[in-house]
Amino acid sequence: MRRPTLLTLALLCAATPRFIFGAENTTEKVKPVVPLLAQTFDLADVKLGPGPFREAQERDRAYLLRLDPDRLLHTFRLNVGLPSSAQPYGGWESPDVELRGHSLGHYLSACALMARSTGDEECKRRVDYIVAELAKCQAASPKAGYHAGYLSAFPESFIDRVEQRKEVWAPWYTLHKIMAGVLDAYQLTGNQQALTVLTQMADWVKFRVDHLTPEQMQAMLQTEFGGMNEVLANLYSVTGDKEHLRLAQAFDHKFVFDPLAAGKDQLDGLHANTQIPKVIGAAREFELTGNDRYRAIAENFWTDVALHRSYVIGGDSDREHFFPVDDFAHHLSPETTETCNTYNMLKLTRHLFEWHPDARTIDFYERGLYNHILASQDPAQGMFTYLMSLEPGHYKTYSTPENSFWCCVGTGMENHAKYGDTIYAHDQDGVFVNLFVPSEVHWRERGVTLKQETTFPEEDATRLTISTREPAAFSLKIRHPAWSTGELKITINGEAVASAPEKNAYAELKRTWKNGDRVEVKLNPTLRTESLPGVKSEVALLYGPIVLAGKLGTDGMPMPYARDQLDQARFPHPAVPVFVLSDENLVAHVKMISRSPLLFETQGLAQPRDVVLEPFYLVQHERETVYWKVLTPQSWETVRSGIAATENEWKSLSTTALDFVAAGDENSESAHAFQSGKTESGHFSNRSWRQAQKGNAFGYLLKTSANASKADVSKSDASKADATKGDTPLTLVCAFGSRDKARKFNIVIDDKVIATPKLDGTAPGEILLQKFAVPVELTRGKDAISVKFVADKNWDGATANVFGCALVANP
Questions:
Q1: pLDDT, tens digit (0-9, with 9 covering 90-100), for 171-221
Q2: CA 285 centroid distance within chain
């Protein structure tokens, strides 16, 4: 299939052609047995107005149209013996990666969501094309040696491996993405062929599941399987076939569900995003069966994660795993808050809201939507974050257009296509206004349109205009968010509503509305702080629901795009300012300096310099900080003195040591016989650094005597030097990145490990000096020794960031 030209893309985005959907989604044969007290609107009935959400949607649409479906279909075709001349995408979609195929499922969902949200004809055409091609692949499966109904980009033997508890990368997870994409094609765009493909896949799932004992099935569920229970439950709602519900329940993971059903939080150490989709499945199973155990699982999990395990941006987890709730102090890393987690937590939140429309639930939804999901998109190329780094001084790292395709690229494609799904909801009596986002909703059953105009958070108000052919009696329910202090100030057609009553924190305006009626809501966001959970001395700043981030420039920062999601996670960064406060009124030292754009500035608060703060979702392509250390003036003076002492010691060593090498500096390294495997290097704050990747090393020859000549040091076999030299005990002094922690590497001198440094990442300033005794037997008789930094080959990480090392004689 020929890729669209840039001109075509521009015309598509500008003209916004729309195909016409029918009435609200009526594809479900089985309705929930649990009363839904609120229901979100069909995406086709909600249109975004001007603002950051529509801008993100348009960037996402442009990216979806840049992708070539044939390249995503390549490995599906080859897997069943069908020809393909397309060039496959890279990253997690490479033909040799076991997770290949997951992105096509996400892409199918994203195109269906975008088509439903915007009416884009090209997105709808791509959905139809992909479904037709997948049907061909499914039909060819038996001839390729697979069981009927099988559809994937990897061989069916991957399922054999997971059943046999052999190592394999989450095949059921990928199948869930494919099945969910096909179901979205049917439900969101009306593609009838998609339902046929999906029911045949479900027949294959039945074949695979039914030959396992319950014990074997539960053992298999120890490997990540996405939301298989959710997609099968959703399929049951469409077909009414109780076998599909039975299959959904076969994927109920007792190891996780049993403690949650009993109200026990046993999530520590679990891979976070493995759990959230299966809990969404439990929520859907509750709706379709009424089994209260499922409700308890979903609500208890939501409470545990949303209220106790989340950072200020609404995201959770570090290095993709849950950690103890009292250990946040050790979990501000470059690998916090996987974006997939928040994508899924918002889906779960929407279920809970529909069961019980509580404004507190939407408070969490709003937090995650603005501060994680909206913040996760690159404004330059429409790319996506995987791990939203909250390490002070780090930055957002984005995928590449064609060579990443991480899980969060897949959910990212969906995120920005469905912003309209929770702005509004309705019950029999009225409309809930959940979010203050410029948009328009058409309440089809009542013939009413509600238009919301606002530039929130740049303004503290929103305006709602009602359009109706005939007067209509209903309630307008406006969320009173927790962050808005005092009563909501509401006017209807310019007249104040006296003490607007609240119902579950929604101000309810019940009346007969006429065409042109106008409601204005004055919000009252304030500047406030929120501590890192359990750590009073580290705080974030918020304006209303909007997390503010300090803008810290680009010193030493590479282009923020990565093929692998961890490529830049362990780079060092400059020291970050701290807040120094002699009283408790921190926000009094932060002033708004601009309303549009929304900007704040610290005044006499941050040291060693004040900083400008901007909404986190707007800070892109530069270093940033969300959480700030708060010190007393006395503590700051102690820290400042310690930093100065470290810097002075390191500077002194450059001239007084027996030998000194500046890592990452070409001239210094060349003068010390530099050797390396796969390494990274860079500069910031007028200093250079180097690190070795997994299983690799770098090293230098260092003089053991001030009298050794350059010629002596460059000898290929320093051990043949005069045996009378090198009797003085020496110390190796290394400068590591101050924030380095949990690195697994060894320091090796002439092939002997002399140290395995332990780093906790708590040192102030930019460098940490550590000293290691050098055994005399390694220096005796030598003019020089080989010093190497070797990354552990069994750990998927790197050495510390090494700024240099020096050899000094012991006093």
A1: 999 999 999 999 999 999 999 999 999 999 999 999 999 999 999 999 999
A2: 27
d(CA 244, CA 237): 9
**The pair of three-digit structure tokens given for residue 165, joined into one six-digit string:** 């508890």
Contact predicate 527/599, CB 8 Å: no
CA nearest neighbour of 540 among 604, 616, 486? 616
CA 165 to chain centre: 29
The CA–CA distances, whole Å, from 288 to 176, 228, 238, 282, 355 equal: 19, 15, 11, 10, 12
- Return the bridge partners of 760, or none: 741
SS3 803: strand
Phi, psi angle pair for 172, to nearest 5°: -65, -30
* Tally of CB atoms within 10 A around 39: 16
DSSP three-state, residue 681:
strand
Is residue 625 classed as helix, strand or coil in its secondary structure?
Answer: strand
pTM: 0.93
Percent composition of the chain: helix, strand, coil (DSSP 3-state, to 5): 35, 25, 40
State how far Cα 261 lies from the chain centre.
Answer: 27
62 three-state secondary structure = helix
Peptide bond into 32 cis (omega under 30): no
Separation of alpha carbons 237 and 248, rounded Å: 11
Integer-rounded Cα radius of gyration of the chain = 29
CB 198 within 8 A of CB 183: yes
How many residues can be counted in the chain?
811
* Phi, psi angles (nearest 5°) of residue 477: -110, 110
Tokens of 809: 């004689």
Rounded Cα–Cα distance for residues 467 and 518 (Å): 10
Residue 1 or 416, more confident: 416
Alpha carbon of 603 to those of 194, 428, 613: distances in Å?
59, 51, 11
